[in-house]
Amino acid sequence: MSNIQKDEKTYLFDNPRNVSRLLLGFYVICGVLFLADFVAHRHTTHPWEGITGFYAFYGFVACVVLVLIAKEMRKVFMRKEDYYDVDE
Amino acid sequence: MWMSDLPPFIPFYIAALLVLVTRGWTRNIVLLATPILGGLHLWFGVQPYVPMVATDALVSAKELSFQLTMLGYQLEFMRVDKLSLLFGYLFHIASIIAIIYALHVRDTTQHVAALLYAGSALGAVFAGDLITLFIFWEGLALSSVFLIWARRSERAIRAGIRYLILQVMSGVLLLAGALIHFHQTGSLAFDFIGIESTAGWLILLAFGIKAAFPFLHTWLTDAYPESTPTGTVFLSAFTTKVAVYALARGFPGTELLVYIGAAMTCFPIFYAVIENDLRRVLAYSMINQVGFMVCGIGIGTALALNGAVAHAFNDVIFKGLLFMTMGAVLYRVGNINGSDLGGLYKTMPKTAILCIVGASSISAVPLFSGFVSKSMVMSAMLIEGYDYLWLMLLFASAGVFHHAGIKIPYFAFFHHDSGIRTQEAPNNMLVAMTIAAILCIFIGTQPQYLYALLPWHVEYWPYDITHVLAQLQLLFFSALAFVWLNKKGLYPPELRSVNIEVEWLYRKLLPAMGQTSVNRLQRLNQQIAAYTLTIWQSVKLAFQSSRVSQYHLASSWPTGSMVLWIGVILGGYLLMDVYF
Fold first, then answer.
1. Facing residue for B273 by CB, picked from A34, A59, A67
2. B323/B334 Cα distance (integer angstroms)
């Protein structure tokens, strides 16, 4: 294990263009998946599933809610790394 | 050539003895040959006795019985049906992978403990009665704790002790439950138990500790991340999955389990998002995955039970793969904190790709193994009308993708460049991880082979446009949320920290209460001592002021003369004894 050398080669994601290409591709796929709801004929078992964009919307909201709640939890539950190792 | 009634744990226990006396290549051959030959024996030499039918209750099968009499009681070591066989195959595969992964380790303790541990897991799933189950249940606890202690750090030793206390408690509950069960029913056979009796509750609690039910889960998130890089791979494969097997055998269709399982899928993901130790993140996600299995068992239909055990099968492989990649990082870098890692794809590209395969599998991306089993549980949930719990599970599905599917590979291998330059994982680790990754993709693309092994007969095929599209939408938009939160700077950074949870009760509150009690007792002791002293002094004063104190025997004497007088008295007694 050694630290970065100055003349090191650049790796795949060192180039910001590669990152933006990846993200662009990702956004396109998201868009296509969302639009697929209008095209594909789905066999749903539950009425909620039939709502257009249900899964897309639910996935997005679920994750945002998850992260925001978890962030708030830190205020209550987070302690220093050695919390259990030292007696107060 | 095969002994069809040889219980599968015996080769592992014998190999553990052989490993003690061998070194180097001989030892490696013993290590590798045991699960391979054992697995082949199980595959070719052992057939299930009764084919399972699509009913909720299990048909007990005991043709191939290897029995032993202990204290006048028949122990049944070899109950073979499709349920026990499935877990038997699984534990052999897991052993092969984990042993290859740990082949470079030169630590006799770890090898012996690992073989005994795998053997105990096999013993438990083929146990036909509750006493045999109890023996291997405790075997699991006693052997696995050495894999934690093998880290040999202060933290690991303390975590191991806490782990052992809870695991042994589980065993004690199981034994108590088994004895009450025997008293009530006159039978110790390990079949459907249910929660109609006290015995059932005790046994459910025992299983619940090992299955990491909420509030009983702390041993898992506490101890697993403290084990050695290789030890955690073994640990992740056996204990919780034996518990899932035991629940599927003893409590299928117990509705309470649906609610417990749903809680298990949801609460750990919040902790997983803010946890820094990436192996602890995986430990939380393990509770989440076991939650899906517990839900399936609680629903109890053929589809749900098949989904539960199939998910257990897949989970061992993909969770093992994820623990292996994180173990490889820990082995090479010496650190597994998300806050200190990043950019490792540059020097560990193969490990990074294998990690992504594991992450895709656990997130149930179509064409990876998690998808073909988790969707069975989800479908069963909707069919049985648990609408709101289904929403919880869907939330947990998005959440697991978020913390295990994205967070683990992202913070370890990508993210910002931490400046760490290391080297690729050792070859044996790469081989083990590759086998697991191939299995993930194979099961994901060819699920019919896994489905054929499932205990209950039900027609199911996960690949239709409805399922695939729904799952892809859920996952891609969860990922979109991750990207959006990161771009907005709302995503919580990885911080060096611990997050307090249930274990706080016994790691902080209880010791603090203990300390307070000790302090109180000490104060009380001091008060009593002071009080006694005052009384004693007032008595002394009263004595000295009285006329008795003038008498010469009342004045103080040296110890020597006291001893002399005692000698004289004893001598007098002796003479009296001799002459009278």
1. A67
2. 15
- Look up residue B337 and give its DSSP letter: B
Distance between first and last Cα of chain A:
37
B243, B211 Cβ separation under 8 angstroms: yes
Biggest CA-to-CA distance, chain B: 112
Could you tell me the sign of the dihedral formed by the alpha carbons of B100, B104, B106, B110, in that order? negative
SS (H, E, C) B283-327: HHHHHHHHHHHHHHHHHCCHHHHHHHHHHHHHHHHHHHHHHHHHH
- The answer, as to whether pTM is greater than 0.90, is no
Q: Would you say B292 and B226 are in contact if contact means Cβ atoms under 8 Å apart?
A: no
B324, B261 contact by CB (below 8 A) = no
Q: Counting one residue from A and one from B, how many pairs have CB atoms under 8 Å apart?
A: 165
Assess contact for B322 and B358: CB atoms under 8 A: yes
In single-letter form, the type of residue at position B273 comes to V
Cβ–Cβ below 8 Å for B499 and A80: no
Closest-CA residue of chain B to A35? B473
CB-CB under 8 Å, A79 with B499: yes
CA of B338 vs chain A CAs: smallest distance (Å): 13
Interface test with A, best of B273, B386, B507 (most A CBs within 10 A): B273
3-state secondary structure of B167: helix
Token pair belonging to B203 = 């046994």
Cross-chain CB nearest to B477 (options A3, A30, A68): A30
Instruction: Judge whether B353 is closer than 8 Å to chain A, CB to CB.
Output: no
Q: How far apart are alpha carbons B242 and B429 in whole angstroms?
A: 25
Contact B498 A26 (CB under 8 A): no
Which chain A residue's Cα is nearest to B502? A77
Q: What is the DSSP string of B230-286?
A: THHHHHHHHHHHHHHHHHHHH-TT-THHHHHHHHHHHHHHHHHHH--BHHHHHHHHH
Residues of B in contact with A33 (CB under 8 A): 469, 472-473, 476-477
For A70-85, b/e burial (b = at least 16 CB within 10 A) is: bbebeeebbeeeebbe
Q: What is the CA radius of gyration of chain A?
A: 22
Give Cα A63 distance to the centre of its chain. Answer: 7
d(CA A46, CA A54): 11
pLDDT single digits (tens) B266-309: 999 999 999 999 999 999 999 999 999 999 999 999 999 999 99
Per-residue pLDDT reduced to its tens digit, A30-71? 999 999 888 877 777 788 887 888 999 999 999 999 999 999
